[in-house]
Amino acid sequence: MDWYEEKARKLKITNSVDVLVTGAGPSGVAAALAAARLGANTMLIERQGVLGGISTSGLMSHWTGSVNSGLYDEILQRSAARNEGEYKDKVTVIIDPEKLQTLYADMLCEAGVKLGLYTLASDAVTENNKVQGAIVESKSGREAILAKVVVDASGDGDLAARAGAAYVKGRESDGKMQPVTVMFKVAGVDTERAVFLNAFESLCHTEKGELQALAKQHISHPAGHVLLYRATLPGVVTCNMTNCVGIDGTNAEDLTRAELVCRKQIGEIIAFLREYAPGYEHCFLMNSAALIGVRETRRFKGLYTLTEQDILEARVFDDWVVRDASFNFDVHNITGAGLDETGVQKEFRQTAGYTIPYRCLVPEKTDGLLLCGRNISGTHMAHSNYRAMPICAAIGEASGTAAAIACRMGVEPREVKAEEIQKCLTAVR
User: What is the pLDDT of residues 403-419, one digit of tens each?
Assistant: First the structure.
């Protein structure tokens, strides 16, 4: 038997809200906060029991890149008050995942956002090419949530895809996507002597040789690079060194394989660090991410597609909703370890920042829906820049703002004027 025909059934409508946000990573949290603070009845659903996505469950080391966003600045400021040790009351881009997930919860509850954790958005409620809500699955069963506007902040754009919105995956030439990673932390590090390599192009010459070269020689393919970042806790370092290529992050079988591959690499990487990295002689595994880091999957076709050239020219769009976004072309090697031949980190010279137009957040043909985070409309190379978490948070702030305005005015998101969004984003907080 190749197919099983599921019987039709009535679903209980458990909630009816103004704005429904699916996915509680930095972009989803920001979208829900922005919408709720503008008075929209807002609900945020997340398939995990923890808020924050890659920034927390993914054990992301730090906020990389920068952007002009009131919400992002607020997250940094409020995180500083919760930091301990040397980072107490200091604004830093270094992330304490445990503190950050609690901060997200506090901010969302303060704003009156209704939370639905352990809840997966499995399908879209649609009629006449308009998204009207989501079908969700949880311990409570299969249910429906209706909404005036749905913001897809799931990273992979699962709900937008279910709704039939057009998308592409991977680079334009062959559809291949960046590798995936399971982040982990090691403790027992002598941080006074420890080396920290923050980029693929960062080098460290030791008595036994240059560290990046040694990694390529002694760590099994497709791993083989060194990325080590400071943590907020003493003696702890965050490692971004596992690597699995040829993975489609929208395919559960691929994700399962990637988990097994990356976790198998952790022991070998720790053994390498003990042998070759100064300060790591006595390091040991502290914990590993509960969520695998998927860098690239679907990018939806919006009313405009952001390009590499737009970023390089620091183009300022009239309908901007994200401004002063700044990062590099962070393309991890699609076939192995290190930086891809198309990536540009140290040599990236555009420091003026760039803008993202509202049109990139609006699907080409689907109503009732806004794109959010790394799934917005852009090319493979542009995506490698705007996928950075601060920029995704700013995209979330913009999409949540637009969704709230659309609800207040009783119009489709595509009818919202960018000037109205800009007024809210630049208002004194």
Answer: 999 999 999 999 999 99
Judge whether 148 and 407 are in contact, CB under 8 Å.
yes
Q: Please indicate, yes or no, if residue 234 is contained in any of the structural domains.
A: yes
Query: Are residue 283 and residue 320 in the same domain, yes or no?
Result: no
Q: List pLDDT tens digits, range 46-63.
A: 999 999 999 999 999 999
Tens digits of residue pLDDT in 229-286: 999 999 999 999 999 999 999 999 999 999 999 999 999 999 999 999 999 999 999 9
Q: Give me the domain span that covers residue 391.
A: 12-170+301-331+339-426
- pLDDT of 399 > 60? The answer is yes
**For residue 167, how many other CB atoms are within 10 A of its CB?**
21
**Do 364 and 416 reside in the same domain of the chain?**
yes
The reply to whether 36 falls in a domain is yes
- Same domain? 76 vs 119: yes
Tell me the torsion sign for CA atoms 216, 222, 227, 233: negative
CATH of the domain at 410: 3.50.50.60
**Closest by CA position to 248, among listed 256, 237, 239, 240:** 256
What the block records as the tokens of 423 is 């007024």
Q: Are 101 and 50 in contact (CB under 8 A)?
A: yes
Q: Burial code of 56-70, b = ≥16 C-beta within 10 A, e = fewer?
A: bbbbbbbbbbbbbbb
Question: Model-level pTM?
Answer: 0.97
Inter-CA distances, 120 with 5, 49, 136, 143, 199, Å: 22, 11, 5, 10, 34
Q: How far apart are the C-alpha atoms of 421 and 323, rounded to whole Å? A: 12
